[in-house]
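okkk here we go again. third time trying to get the magnesium ion bound version out, last two times i messed up the smiles copy paste (missing a bracket lol). double checked this time i swear
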Amino acid sequence: MGPLGKYLLRSVIRLVIALFVTSAIVFGALYLAPGDPISQLAGGRPLTPQQEKTLRAEYNLDRPLPERYVDYLGDVLHGNFGTSIAFQQPVSELIKSRIGTTIWLLILTSILIAVAGVGLGVLAARRPGFIDDSVLISTTIGLATPSFVVAAVLIAVFAVDLGWFPIFGSGGSSVGSKVEHLTLPAIALSLASIGFVARTGRTSLRVEQRRDYFNTAISRGIPERTAFRRHVLRNAMIPISTAIGLSIASIVVGTTVVEVAFGLNGLGSLLVQSVLRSDFPTVQAVSLILVVTFVVVNTLVDILYVLLDPRVELGTANR
Amino acid sequence: MSLLTVDDLDVAIGGTPILRSVSFALEPGEALGIVGESGSGKSMTARAIARLLPRGAVATGKITFDGTELLAAGTADMRRVRDGGISLVFQDPRAAINPVRSIGDFLAEGLRTNRKIGKAEARRRAVQVLEEVRISRAEARLAAYPHQLSGGLLQRVMIAAALLSEPRLILADEPTTALDVTTQAEIMAILEELRRERGLASIFITHDLELAAATCDRIAVMYAGELVEVQAAETLLERPHHPYTAALLAARPGMTERVPRLPAIPGRPLAAGDPIEGCRFAPRCPLVIDRCRSEHPALAPCEQSLSRCWRAADVKVPEAGAEQLDHA
Ligand SMILES: Nc1ncnc2c1ncn2[C@@H]1O[C@H](COP(=O)(O)OP(=O)(O)O)[C@@H](O)[C@H]1O
Ligand SMILES: [Mg+2]
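finally!!
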């Protein structure tokens, strides 16, 4: 196996360990919380003896903890997350009906972060002076403004006043309708990350622009734009893609605020609703999905990093 | 007609003069060495010719290469000069070659982008030129990345890349300074061989006067942003006509002594930007007279040399290693 293969294998092993640990924490939350697991599961609701018996059986509460964890993993892998007491239906069905919206939101947001973040970074790096200053100021504002404030402003201006976008809801199943309903939420969710990526990009592009190999390319008669793309942008993409990856991982958690603000029926709003209703099985399931997504995205960033930088495999990067 | 003429070249950065009235000419196939202490303006001269001056630098004067006036050339003309006219070899190949692209990509870049040559043909030529600079297993090296090659090998790759565009002039700025001594000798041997075989003109920049004299036809000595002496290499060592050249020669280690090859001349070198009335070497010159402090000498013929000195005829032949001065 080559060094690249070894690196990939190590990444996958790390991923698996991280998944075990996070799932154990999410699983253990039920038992770490003060009080009887049964009342946790019931969310403080009074239970009939029959309901209590069903819950005990479903959660194997009479068996030892490690066995219950193994059962839990088996259930989760089969898409079985238990039954929501608050919604009176299997948690898996709740998730199935909600996950599409969140996936769409994450995709749109990721595209916005990558395109606008890199675009603004390039603009700032290549045009010192007024344009650079404008990008710096606007990204500072973007970074400093919480997403719920951005959401409120976007709704007021573009949905209420101008009427360009719907105020509320996740839209139908067509791509057009999804994009129409999810554009404003995606902007609210991405604004801070766009600022972060743009600033990372600006700095690393500036550094790369001063490298000798950019001059080498120019000295060989390569057109400036081509040389910029090939030797400046390409090399700066190493830190930039890390910034994009970290941003995407972090917005997974940010979906809760924005989904509630825009009244989207996604996983984030489901998490908030189930917390408010003390619906433990649903909270547990949604947390697990969000955390797993976070961990997987981070692993993808690790792998992308080594694919972009041939020096990493030998441990000589950042010379 | 000369291949390259540099005529009254001035370079200033932020109003500070870096080069002052640099003028010289280079014939086709000729090898010129530019020698001087660090900071004397050797690299700036090379960068002005290659039109790679740093941001904010202003160059005036006239640089003509093969009929094209470089300082006034448009993008298209400049690209033509860069692809097949002048090729550069930089001091530190590790900094001058993009670390995230393969050696094959690096070599083929010019051919593929500028000349739209196909992948297979570019690859064939890359292998051929790697063999020409005596790199073994050339085919296999194409897939390697810069960090997998030694400094000496990388500098050969750099030279190979410079050759691929079939230039008429190679501009090498301290191509061996970053390398160890044995590798230096190999690189110099390769450069010289290629130059003779292909009839290339070359400008070789170094702070090592002896090395320059051994490998070049003619030597230009720079001091504080000016050329102070230009003379054929053969006669320069025997008969320097500028006290600075003489001091450089005197400062070289003797045949038996094991002293680092660094010129040790008393006094601080002047920067090109330092304002001074007379000769810029006067504060350090052993031959200084009153006139030197008030009147700036021009580069003028003296016997077989061009020298910027009022006392050019009085400059003595130095004895190697004899008057080693105790300065760092
Ligand atoms: N980017 C720059 N900005 C301002 N001054 C510079 C820059 N690069 C070099 N210089 C100055 O120009 C002078 C000549 O430098 P250089 O040509 O690099 O010298 P050499 O190659 O002979 O060692 C030095 O005094 C140096 O300080
Ligand atoms: Mg230099």
